[in-house]
Amino acid sequence: MWGFAGDLSQWSILRWVYLHVSLTLTCMNRRDFVRSAGGATAAAAAGSAASPSVVAQAEARPDFSGFLDSVDGGYEDYRGEQEVRINVGASGNGGNFAFSPAGVWIDEGTTVIWEWTGEGGAHNVRTYSDSPLDNIHDLNSGSSAGGSDITYEHTFEEGGFTGYFCKPHEGLSMFGAVAVGEDIAVIEPSPNTGWPEDIAHSGVELHPHWHGMIAGLGIISTFVFTFYVVKYGASANTGTGRDSWCLRVALRTAISTATSRPARALLRRLLSFF
Predict the structure, then answer these.
(1) Which of 6, 227, 233, 264 is most buried, judged by most C-beta within 10 A?
(2) What is the pTM of this model?
(3) Do residues 3 and 99 both lie within one domain?
(4) Sheet containing 160-165: order of strands
């Protein structure tokens, strides 16, 4: 690419990086170097302050024993509430065939009110005897019915789990579950340090073409920086003969280490300007 195909090996790129850094440290006066380093340090510190070192931890959730896996409707923690409402016929499971929320965690003595949305046909609420849960409470709203003015309520006095379903839409996974009290099985979240479990799978995978373009841009930026420093010195107002001398030495070194003829020709062309 741009006549540098023979120079884009890892070793060649490392040589260019070394020359670029050596050029900067050798030709930049002390004041400019300290100012640049201080700015970089301040930017890094600001970035560290803006990024929290510990990712917020997820909260424990009731262990519904897989009963709500692949069931739409979501989950809510309603502990501390005396009355909770659940929509019957909410959007989910391929239509309006969901309880929303499908899973809830409440305290003993909390009243749950199921409210029909009028969508998805006729529904009912019944304890699901085939669920893997304890089914502490017996839920039964009666025969299935449709409409938006229907409600069913139950007060959960005892702790434990109860799974329920809509009989007409059992085949569409219209399930729900209620967890009551603190003495129940819960799923504790795993510690999250913010790092991926497998660091090899982090970041963004780059196509090989991008690697070549990045290497080429790095080489070009080195040439541009070199021209600027030789033309104007370490800064726009502090050019010295020493700057030109050290840069000419660096360019001659680069010419001697370049492995391709186009690279050497371009470097000689650059050197001729000075």
Answers:
(1) 233
(2) 0.53
(3) no
(4) 75-77, 103-106, 175-180, 160-165, 126-127
